[in-house]
Sequence to fold (466 residues):
Amino acid sequence: MNRRNFLKSTGAFSGITILPSYMVFGQKSSSGILPPSERVNLAVVGIGNRGGGNFKTVSQTGMCNIVALCDVDLQGKQCVDALTAHPKVPRFTDFRKMFDKMENQIDAVLISTPDHAHFAIAMLAMSLGKHVYVEKPLAHTFGQVERLMDLAERSGVATQMGNQGHSGGNHFQFKAWTEAGVIKDVTKIVATMNKGRRWHGWGASVTEYPSDPLPQGMDWDTWLSSAPVHPHSKKLHPGNWRSWFDYGSGAFGDWGPHILDTSHRFLKLGLPRKISAVLRDGANKFVFPQATIIEFKFPKRKGMPACDIFWHDGVENIPTFEEEYGDLVVDKETGKSSRKPVEPNKCGKIIYGGEHVFKGGSHSDVLQIIPREKYMDIRRSLPTFQQKNSNHHENFLLACKGEEETRSPFSVSGPLTQVFNLGVIAQRLGGELQFDRKTKKITNNNIAQALLDPAPRKGWEEFYRL
Fold:
């Protein structure tokens, strides 16, 4: 604790960037299998389910040494693959103990815990000069994101949020097409996520937090992190935590980072001025609705018009689109032509620009100009874009080594996540929220304002002061 108390001072970062030894000695590398001395020493916090996927992908880069494994449920079946693959790597259930014992052996940290636990781990890691990769969404509350962005800037470490498509085709296409003026004057975006979620079907049956026996070896207190205390339940761990307002961010926080990231970044949307819950089907005090439509109003920006975003989630909550954007089809018998209805992707968006309308999916999926005949008319004039580059995990590790800049640093992914934080509050409370972009406060709802930055539970205040 004495060490952590010292690092809480902002003076601890005065012009100092903490670098691994191989960077100090100027060793360079390229992607591929590297000698251990040139790899990033990586600690992994959260090694099951999504964490296991991240863990496997980052291991396959050949650019890191796995030096520590941390998970609150090491005896859970979801952790077996990671532990089996690295049987001799030190393992922990509490990230604080991991840093206490192995601080000097860690260069960077991969964090794939539930949403509510991202904040404390990332804050402690950055305060110790460790580079951090944090799964999306960046944090559970608006105020937590503010602190993460601030400490990332003060510490000078490499940061990356895990919206993997931000290193793929959609990222480079959107950037190139925006810079060339192909995507411009966007006034409306309709985003869709119409896949089934774990909480679908729960609905009105959830009237309190359930309780199940605690699994052997489970560190429930660390799992809870700074969030409110509720008993362990199979409807929380493993995997179901995303369903609950106190721990997860619903479909919006889960899929929004993969669907709206490039629109938010390259259209320079920033934060909205108004958020409205247009639909909350099956609204519940504890878990997310069965379906929602949330509207965001973004004001004019430099050279860009005001823009509205409509978010649709829920299996049957599928928006309809104007007939004029459907592809032409010709009846072989009559020769008559008609337009096929636009079928939105289950996870995707329609972007309405001044000259063109674009249909897109999620992650790395590139945009299509609709209707198709419009695309065919201009296809030869469209700018090309980069399609060979480091993937998202490689990009992070190369940034740790000083060879690239991360594509989704907290300065970019933080404001994006805050849009999701605001949307989740609207899903939770309903109604219309007025947001002051300068003061970053909700001005018309005291309960919503309190949810922007709720106090941590007792014993976890130190992470809010780092």
Q: What stands out?
A: The chain is about 30% helix and 15% strand. Residues 1-12, 14-32 have pLDDT under 50 and may be disordered.
